[in-house]
Every structure is written in C-alpha cells, then in structure tokens.
Write a structure and sequence with these properties.
The protein is α+β, with helices and mostly antiparallel strands. It is built from 14 helices and 10 strands. α6 packs across α10 (about 230-240). The radius of gyration is 34 Å and the shape is elongated.
C-alpha cells in the first residue's frame, strides 16, 4: 500500500465492508496486510478468516486471499491486544439482507417481513420469521381481503403414477393477474397433491374443502414436507394479498383397478405449472375385452383425446341412461307442446319426438356426441367400441 500508516491508523477501526464501499484509496485486503505487518513487528500471531479459507499467519510472514471480500480478524494468542473487537464478522447477514431473503421466500410485504424478523423470540431467524408470518401476517391479510369477489383463478389436474387415482381442483382469485403468478400456481399444485392422497366422500369424489381433515392434510412434495393445505393457502394469501378460495376439490379412484385407468387434459396451461390451467377434464377408460388386450399407452392416448373433447364440448351427462328422469320428462313435454298444432298423426309425432330426443342427448351426453378430436368426428361411443374401450366416468371444471 502506498498510503501512509498514519492514514491507516485513522481508519483501521472501520468495518472492512464499509471500507470497500467508501474508501477510494485502498482495497480491504491492503488494510488487512498493513494491520498484520504492524502486528508482526510486535511478534504476535494472528488468524485471518474468510468465507472460503482459514489461513494461520505466523509472526514472520503472512498470505492474503485476495479473492475474498468478507473478513474477520481474531488474535491467535492470549495477549492484551484483541483486534476482534475492531473488526466484526461481515459474513453475518444484515437486517436488510434478511428482509430481502424472507420476502423472496414468502412474498410478504417488506414491512411485514421486518416485523417478523424483529419480533420477540425470532431474533433474525428466517424459519422462525416465516412461522411468525403464517401465524400473524396471513391472519391479518385474510381479514382484510375476506368478502371480496373471487371470480378468476386456475384449475388443476393431477394423476397418480399408475393412473388409478386422480384429483381435479379449482382455486379462485380476485384477478386474472394474481392467478398467473407462480405463488398461485404453487397453491393449486399443493391442493391437487393433498387431495390425491385422500378419497372423496361423495359419489362424485367431492371433498369438503372447509373441513379440518382436508385443511390439515399435508401437501406433500420433497420441498414442502409437513406443510398443510391451510398453511399453503395462508402463505399464498399473504404473498398475493387477495381473497383466495378453494372452490372445488375432487379425488377419484378407479372402480376396476385391473382394467381401468384415468386420463386427463389441461387446457390453457400457465408457464409456472405443469398441471394448472384455465380448464381441465379427466375421464375413466376401461377395457371391454372385445378387442384383445389393449395396452395402457393406447388407453392413455384415447383417454387424453376424449378429455380434450370434454373440455371443448362440455357434456353434462355420461350417457342417455344417466340423465335424470325428471330432465327427460321435462324435455319430452316441451317437444310434445311444440307438436300440438302440427296436425300430424300420433305415431308420426312420436317418431319426430324420438328423433329430437336423440338430438337432445347428443348435446348433453358424452357417449352420444360427435368426437371433436378424431378425424371425421365419429360418435364417441363408436370410436371407443372399435378400440375395445368404454368410458365409465368423467369430470371437468373451468375458471368460467
């Protein structure tokens, strides 16, 4: 260093991080070098520690790690001169750095992050601060946003590795902008994983989203072990600051595990997720045994195409046999009323009504619809029958 030792002695008590930022004459390493040279003259030994290396400095020589920027200096012997009190450990993160890290991991506002880090018992611990935010910050945020209209959102579809279980969910938000965030997509994935581990209680696989059993279910995953659905929801509300709701959650299990599988399709997938989008459908496909042994890959391919059709055509019922009797009677009554003044014989009127009822079924029943994905648009039931397959169930949902 070309600067005088008198200048050095005026600044040696400063933190090296500050010297690096504010001193235009010397580098921090040069200050350390000057300090050690001064110490060598008195015959003392020191240890210089950096993030990457620890080097003992004998009284006669020393070596600096010039690539390291964070140092602390401590005296190696027990004499009266203790330099550690002048040079603090710059590897310790500042409150500003901790706030930035906590905000990045939780998405909470900076003010809330500061409150969490400085709260009693937290003492700058990131994990404790995250827990504090879940207990205090999310509750406060939920109170502020509750009651707001949540008409946007995303749906999610997740299949088990063996395709014998499926979960289909819908999570609502206030704005489309919020639903496109990575935090919201992560919430949808958490809800889907949690529901896949449960069995729906209703006939259609619906799960009570307000019940303690589901809210306390672990979302699973290697990163989020131990995190519950409620905790994941609270974290998302804290990060997004909107009214988020679990609108629909269904967990499905195949009826015949040996012959049936689930296949699905997600439409309008968002960039931050592989299972979330604006619409989704899942179908249960089973072998009929009429065309030999249909492979699982063939079943998956046929099922995915059928799920794509479901998203586009939006059928209401599986087949004419599954349409409630009151719905059928109401439609026939309307058609009869339309034919009252036709002047046609009763047997002709009956045939006309039967034809119109077939059209009615084609509009609302999956098996009777023209397959929108297959070339030529043949009837769904015909396509599956020729492959030795049949569809036994389907579920679909969309944002709107």
């Amino acid at each position: 260093c070309t600067h005088s030792t008198s200048f050095f002695h005026q600044h040696w008590h400063c933190r090296f991080s500050l010297l690096e930022d504010h001193c235009n004459w010397c580098q921090p390493e040069q200050y350390i070098e000057m300090l050690l040279r001064s110490a060598v003259q008195s015959g003392r030994s020191f240890v210089v520690r950096s993030k990457a290396i620890t080097v003992s400095k004998p009284a006669s020589s020393f070596l600096l790690n010039s690539s390291s920027k964070a140092y602390s200096v401590a005296e190696a012997n027990n004499d009266s001169c203790n330099l550690a009190r002048y040079f603090s450990d710059t590897t310790k993160k500042s409150l500003t750095q901790l706030i930035k890290e906590l905000r990045a991991s939780t998405g909470a506002p900076m003010v809330e992050c500061k409150k969490a880090l400085t709260a009693e018992g937290v003492e700058g611990d990131i994990e404790k601060a995250a827990d504090w935010l879940r207990q205090h910050g999310s509750a406060k945020a939920s109170l502020k946003v509750s009651g707001r209209d949540a008409s946007e959102g995303l749906v999610g579809l997740l299949l088990s590795p063996d395709s014998d279980k499926a979960s289909i969910v819908k999570v609502s938000s206030e704005t489309d902008f919020a639903s496109r965030s990575s935090a919201f997509a992560g919430l949808v994935e958490d809800v889907a994983r949690a529901s896949l581990s449960l069995t729906g209680g209703a006939n259609d696989g619906s799960i009570d989203v307000s019940g303690d059993e589901f809210l306390n279910t672990s979302v699973g995953g290697d990163i989020k072990k131990g995190l519950t659905v409620k905790a994941s929801l609270d974290e998302a509300i804290l990060a997004i600051r909107e009214n988020l709701q679990l609108s629909e959650v269904k967990s499905l299990v195949v009826e015949d595990s040996g012959e049936a599988i689930f296949a699905g399709y997600v439409h309008g997938r968002v960039p931050d997720s592989t299972i979330s989008g604006t619409a989704a459908a899942v179908v249960e496909i089973t072998r009929t045994g009429e065309k030999g042994d249909v492979s699982k890959d063939e079943m998956q391919d046929a099922g995915k195409k059928l799920a794509m059709h479901v998203v586009a055509a939006r059928p209401t019922y599986l087949s004419p046999e599954t349409v409630p009797e009151d719905v059928v009677e109401k439609e026939r009554a309307i058609l009869m009323e339309q034919m009252t003044d036709s002047g046609k014989p009763a047997n002709i009127v009956e045939k006309i009504i039967d034809g119109r009822m077939r059209k009615f079924y084609e509009g609302i029943c999956l098996t009777e619809q023209a397959h929108m994905v297959e070339e030529g648009n043949p009837k769904v039931s015909k396509v599956l029958s020729e492959m030795g397959l049949k569809v036994t169930r389907f579920e679909s949902t969309s944002v709107q």
